[in-house]
Amino acid sequence: MKTAVKLLLVAAVLNGVVRTGMSAVTYYQLKDSAQQMLVFGQRATPDELQHGIVTKASELSVPLTAENLVVRRDSLRTVATGVYTEAVEVFPHYHYPIDYSFTVEALSLR
Fold this sequence. Notes:
Elements lengths: L1 H39 L5 H14 L9 E6 L2 E15 L2 E14 L3
Antiparallel strand pairs: 1-2, 2-3
């Protein structure tokens, strides 16, 4: 009986760790995609870049909306800043909100 309880506890903890890790991996995928869009989107307008980042977020099932993402261009520098909260199920039927934010920038040499 003790072994079964220990195994259930280990399975619950492992489940939470895996789900939190998957959430972090998705965050880094979105951040990397946003960085690539800024670096290679020198001719795109800030609105087009914002739309591309929000589209990538929806593909990754990330709750990032256009209201929580700011893309601005100052001369040769383009900066994107995004903020979102994701509810991760760390224990069955218990969701823990994790706040994510990122700022990526790129310089244009044109």
